[in-house]
Amino acid sequence: MNCIRSFELHCAILLIMSLAAPSPALAQSSLRDFSRCLPPVAAGQSDEEECSLTYMAPPLLRQDVLVTDCNFLSGQFASQEKNFKLFQCSVANGTKEAVESFRYGVLYFGSNSDTRLAEGGFEETHRFSTPNINGNLQPGEKRTFTFVGPDVPIQMDADQIEIVVEVIGVYVSGSRRLR
Question: Is the dihedral of CA 152, 154, 158, 160 positive or negative?
Fold first, then answer.
């Protein structure tokens, strides 16, 4: 009796293994050539782009998030003994991905001049960033947002200052990596 059950068990195992084994045609089509990923031999050259194992980082998106038409808002505020100025800008998402938030730096120029009056948000110790955007900024979408920038130089009238916002990096939905 035990011999018959053992025989049935072996037959069942063989049947399962034969059904689970891939066909030769499937094995041929799914094999990849990894030889280009190996270190080169003497007088040989290797090209990382031809290696199917080479990691390709996702493209940067900062150049495709455009911040334009900036205007100062009235008032200012202070934080950690520094004064800051609020302003609004139009932001357009020219990427193919939804933008969750982004880091930015701010430059102030005198109108009709290339003279840099102030800048902020580029330093390691103090960076400017948008909060998470409600509903994300979808591809092709344009919205107006409020930004924080350095205080306006005392001797300047805010109407005579051109605001330039430079996007440093972009966060997309579901990623913690700055792109």
Answer: negative
Distance, in Å, from the CA atom of 70 to the CA atom of 76, rounded to the nearest integer, reads 16
φ and ψ of 72, to 5 deg: -70, 145
Per residue in 29-54, pLDDT tens?
555 666 666 666 555 555 556 676 66
The rounded Cα 160 to chain-centroid distance in angstroms is: 34
Going by the DSSP 8-state scheme, the letter that residue 44 receives in this structure is -
pTM of the shown model: 0.67
Of 95, 98, 87, 103, residue with least CA distance to 146: 87
CB atoms within 10 A of CB 40: 10
Residue with tokens 């290797």: 46
User: CA–CA separation, 104 vs 114, rounded Å?
Assistant: 20
**Strands, sheet with 82-93, edge to edge from the N-terminal-most edge strand:** 65-79, 82-93, 142-150
